[in-house]
């Protein structure tokens, strides 16, 4: 499972801290296992449900959000220097994990993908990530990246991931 997962998501390598990188990979492995998925399913699970038939996969969306997040980090660093002091590894890990909870929120009923009425991926993502020892500042990014976080104060890293996620999602609405 791990080898195929790392082939599908080479952006794991963008996390500089080897311990955090390992914990992020293990979070994805746990989500796949607990949700009853295989790595190849990431290419067919839609990143959102009920909008259009031609949606990008959860895999493509995760990679797109991560790419945009890291490019934004580079542009902000180039423009403002260390005045923002954004933590690149928190950004990368948060972007990679922001939707991992969909592996528990989503099901395939044999004909279509559907969501459980009881679980939201921002919560299940935090549960999966916390079980693997992901630091609180990354858990915060996962927790507040969706509408459940609209009443919370988002950290600077959470804001960048939130904008990258919304930009990617709005392009397909």
Can you put this structure into words, describing what you see?
- It contains eight helices and two strands; from the N terminus they run H-H-H-H-H-E-E-H-H-H.
- The protein is mainly α and 173 residues long.
- A hairpin with a 4-residue loop joins strand 1 and strand 2.
- Helix 2 runs parallel beside helix 4, helix 3 packs across helix 8 and helix 4 crosses helix 7.
- The longest helix is centred in the middle third of the chain and has 23 residues.
- The model has no long low-confidence stretch (mean pLDDT 95).
Measure the end-to-end span.
Answer: 32 Å
Q: How much helicity do the residues have?
A: 55-70%
Q: What strand order characterises the main sheet?
A: 1-2
| Helical run tally | 8
Main sheet makeup: 2 strands, antiparallel
What structural class do you assign from the helix and strand content? mainly alpha
Query: Which blocks of ≥5 consecutive residues have pLDDT under 50?
Result: none
Shape: globular
Strand content: under 5%
Number of strand segments: 2
Average pLDDT, to the nearest integer?
A: 95
Rg on CA atoms, Å: 15 Å
- The ordered string of helix (H) and strand (E) elements is HHHHHEEHHH
How many structural domains?
A: 1
Structure summarized in a few sentences:
With 173 residues, this protein is mostly helical. The chain has one domain (2-39, 57-170). Helix content is 56%, strand content 3%.
